[in-house]
Write a structure and sequence with these properties.
This protein has two domains: 6-163 and 366-379, Rossmann fold (3-Layer(aba) Sandwich); 176-364, Glycogen Phosphorylase B (Rossmann fold, 3-Layer(aba) Sandwich), CATH 3.40.50.2000. It is 50% helix and 15% strand. It is built from 17 helices and 13 strands. It has helices at residues 14-30, 42-46, 63-87, 98-110, 130-137, 149-154, 165-169, 176-183, 200-220, 233-243, 260-266, 277-283, 296-305, 313-318, 333-344, 347-364, 368-379; strands spanning 6-11, 35-39, 50-51, 91-95, 115-118, 140-143, 159-161, 191-195, 225-230, 253-257, 269-273, 288-292, 325-327. It has a seven-stranded parallel beta sheet with strand order 3-2-1-4-5-6-7, sandwiched between helices. Helix 3 packs parallel to helix 4. The protein is elongated. The relative contact order is 0.12. Keywords: Glycosyltransferase, Lipid A biosynthesis, Lipid biosynthesis, Lipid metabolism, Transferase. InterPro entries: Glyco_trans_19 (IPR003835).
């Protein structure tokens, strides 16, 4: 009896689970007989995926948490390598989580199993020498950004641009009025959004700075309102603790759980911590001020290793300073307030950057899941 097409997938966190679910669905439209196994979350399980280990055990963030959980994570990695080597799937797909998945892929590739890494690490910005290692660990890399494939090709690897899933799911045209109606907000004047980050350490570093900026903006625009989407229950609690400080007692701020895309679309200008959220703001077609603050020692180390002129994804992808970046010693309320006000007071600048963001959206918008499915089936020799 012929064994059904077997595709192994491994994800480390919720974003990977979503990509994995979309990939499974796209493969099933072409190969309904395919079976899926590995490590996945609830969305993938809903598509018929069989998870051999608890995906939540891999979803750890922060140095201390990783060190504490390292023995368990290494045990899972050893187990999944053993299980998949014995099963011999037609292809292995590691989705993001490069620290975990690339080690698994390397072992499986040596055992003769084709391997794919889906979502390139930021090799164009940080430690570009990793490209030379990755091309030996996997047969193919699926990239979300258009500048990435050539880096792998130059190193003798195989890679392709499949588009960014956010650009596929988010609307090309923004609707500020509808977003405000959904949130139940109708400010008499300006509405400024604050995105301090999805991790506690980012919130601790950036939320006080952004909230102090809000106080300065309130002096300039007395009718202004502020809105802040929280990424997790933990960050919501920490932001609540910061807002309890006397200096923020009279700040007209609304907390919203998640809904970052709706919040950004509703806002006039967004203050955002550097990271993936900056791309989401751009896809909402909103002007932003990007900021970030880390320890002086870490910043000195990172500055030597970083390989790009900009830190914000919109600026990197557009290859210009489309939006201001106020980092480290520049991440102070006075400078942030001035940059936000410069957007709000100059609608012609907002119109120009919105046009840039529409072009960026079109660049990144592809049928990501279908393109990824085609690549997976090719590596599995199932097309």
């Amino acid at each position: 009896m012929t064994r059904p097409l077997t595709i192994a997938i491994c994800v480390g966190e919720a974003s990977g689970d979503l990509l994995g679910a979309h990939l499974i669905r796209a493969i099933k439209t072409r190969r309904p007989d395919a079976e899926f196994v590995g490590i996945g979350g609830e969305r993938m399980k809903a598509e018929g995926f069989h998870s051999l280990y608890d995906q939540e055990k891999l979803a750890v963030r922060g140095f201390v948490e990783v060190v504490r959980r390292l023995p368990e994570i290494l045990k899972i990695r050893k187990g999944i390598i053993r299980d998949l080597t014995a099963l011999r799937p037609d292809v292995f797909v590691g989705i993001d989580a490069p620290d975990f998945n690339l080690g698994v892929a390397e072992k499986l590739k040596k055992a003769g199993i084709p391997t794919i890494h889906y979502v390139s690490p930021s090799v164009w910005a940080w430690r570009p020498e990793r490209v030379n290692t990755i091309v030996h660990q996997v047969n193919r890399v699926l990239c979300l950004f258009p500048m990435e494939p050539q880096l792998y090709i130059n190193a003798g690897g195989k890679a392709e641009f499949v588009g960014h899933p956010m650009a596929q799911t988010m609307p090309l045209e923004d609707d500020k009025t509808a977003a405000r109606a959904k949130l139940g907000i109708n400010p008499p004047s300006a509405l400024f959004a604050i995105l301090p980050g999805s991790q506690i350490r980012e919130v601790d570093s950036m939320a006080p700075v952004f909230l102090q900026t809000a106080l300065l903006l309130l002096k300039r625009y007395p009718d202004a309102q502020f809105i802040l989407p929280t990424a997790t229950e933990a960050t919501r609690q920490r932001i609540g603790e910061i807002l309890a400080r006397p200096e923020f007692a009279k700040l007209p701020l609304t907390l919203v759980h998640k809904q970052a895309d709706t919040v950004c679309t509703a806002a006039d200008v967004v203050m955002v911590t550097s990271g993936t959220a900056t791309l989401e703001v751009a896809l909402c077609k909103r002007p932003m001020v990007i900021s970030y603050k880390i320890s002086a020692l870490t910043y000195a180390y990172v500055k030597r290793k970083v390989n790009v002129q900009h830190v914000g994804l919109p600026n990197i992808l557009l290859e210009k300073s489309a939006v201001p970046e106020l980092l480290q010693h520049d991440a102070v309320p006075e400078k942030l307030a001035a940059a936000v006000a410069d957007w709000y007071d100059h609608p012609e600048k907002i119109a120009a950057v919105q046009q840039d963001f529409r072009q960026l959206h079109l660049l990144l918008k592809k049928d990501t899941a279908a393109l990824a499915a085609q690549a997976v089936l090719e590596e599995a020799k199932a097309v």
